[in-house]
Structure formats: C-alpha cells, structure tokens
Amino acid sequence: MRDDQLLRYSRHILLDEWGVDGQERVSQSHALIIGAGGLGSPAALYLASAGVGHITLMDHDQVDVTNLQRQIAHTQERVGHAKVASLKVAMANLNPEVQVTAIAAMADASMLAQHVPLADVVLDCTDNFETRHAINLACVTHRKALVSGSALRLDGQVAVYDTRHEAAPCYACVFPPNQHFEETRCATMGVLAPLVGVIGSLQATEALKILSGMGASLHGQLMLFNAKHMEWQTIQTQRQAQCPVCSPSRASALG
Q: How many Cα atoms sit within 13 Å of 182 on the Cβ side?
C-alpha cells in the first residue's frame, strides 16, 4: 500500500478491527450497487470514500428535479443525466482511484446473471418487490451476500441476506414472493430525506464489514427504524424450510 493510500485511509486503518489487512481486502474487492437514488447515493459515496476497489452501479433511471430533495449524489446541473453517470461523477470527486462501472440498464434477470457473479457483495437499493426478488434469486444462485435496504415515509429497514451461512434466510424467506404486498413508493407516499441517508449509510456499513472481514454482519436479523419516534427494532429471522428460493430442494436443483 502506497504512502498516500495509508494517509487517505488512516482513520480506518487505525481501527483494530480493520487495520492494513482489512484495507487491502477492501481495496481488492468488488461491490455491485443496484439503484442509484436515495439509498444508492449515500451507500456508493461511502464505499467509494472507503476505497472499495471496484464498484459497479446499475440503474436505468435519469435524474429528475424531484430526486434532489434526498438523492444527495445528484445535482441541479445533472438533471436529465443517467443516474449512474451522475453518481459516478460524485464518486470520482471523492476518490478518483476507485474503478466505477456505470450500467444504465434495468436490473433484469439477464443483467443480474451477468454481473452478480463478479461481485463480492451486492447492495439492493431499489424500490420495488419484483426487482428485489430477482436480485435475491441471483444472489442465492451465485452465493453472494446481499445487503438490502428500503425507506418510505418515516420508516426504514435494513438486512443482510447471506445464505452462505447455514441458518441465514434469504429475502424470500422473510418476504415470500407468493404473498401479496401492497406496492407503495415515495413518489406517491413521500419519504423523509435524511431517512434514506440513514438506511443507505447502514447498507454501506454492512457491506464494508463483509468486505473487510470486520465483525459479524446482520444476517438473520431485520433492523427496523422509525424516524418519527427515533425508535429501533430488531427482528430475528430464520431460513424457511419450504422457501421457493433457498430451500435444500431448490439448492439441489441449482446444482
């Protein structure tokens, strides 16, 4: 590690749980961030500032003026630009050494099959159940840790789904794909701007713990946050034997 890198990352290196070895692991790692909006902005900025070696961004959307209230990586000057391109600029301004791949495309099954296997950790920063389930399936198939976040109105949640751990559930264990969940988005329901920063920052924290080898991740836990009352709640979650995605029979079918 060069002297300038030791200086740049010194506050992480000073942590006993991190050290030089942790920084080297982070610098050699690859994170895939799906969604470049309210959650993806803080998550990507923190991963870039921490020196994650390669970060791939995937989002098909463009920057809109209504995004600027909470999507802190974007600016008035970049309204109309692809969100991944705008976020890439913001990340480069923080840390030009990080390799950023910007993919202006929807996270469909084909794109996920191509890019999930290349990542060491996947961050789901999207806002709809269909995409979340597709990401989860790809992560289970390719045995990748998934850091999931969501935020709406005054409530947020974050979890790690890492089926490399025997008892750890996947996203489908907690939110079964065959159950109906009302699809609500901030475009119609609203969202408190700092809330997405809180949740996105927690996603970055969990991703960095996984990449650096520092401490235990949130796998097997669903953390809920209510901003109105400043209340945190943690729910223990378990793998479901009949899960259509990660059950033993499904795993055998996947090979």
A: 4
* Per-residue pLDDT, 22: 97
**Catalytic residue numbers, as ranges:** 186
Q: Structurally, how many domains does the chain consist of?
A: 1
Q: What is the chain's alpha carbon radius of gyration, rounded to the nearest angstrom?
A: 18
**What's at 31, amino acid-wise?**
A
* Helical residues (DSSP H) of the chain, grouped into ranges: 3-8, 10-13, 19-27, 40-49, 83-94, 109-115, 129-141, 171-174, 186-189, 193-212, 248-254
Burial profile 46-64: b = 16 or more Cβ within 10 angstroms, e = fewer: bbbbbbbbbbbbbbeebbe
Cα Dmax for the chain: 54
Please report, for the domain that includes residue 25, its CATH number.
3.40.50.720
| % of the chain residues with pLDDT over 90 | 89
Q: Which residues does residue 55 pair with via DSSP β-bridges, in sequence order?
A: 31, 100
Put simply, whether the predicted model's pTM sits higher than 0.85 gets the answer yes
Q: The domain containing residue 231 runs over which residues? A: 3-254
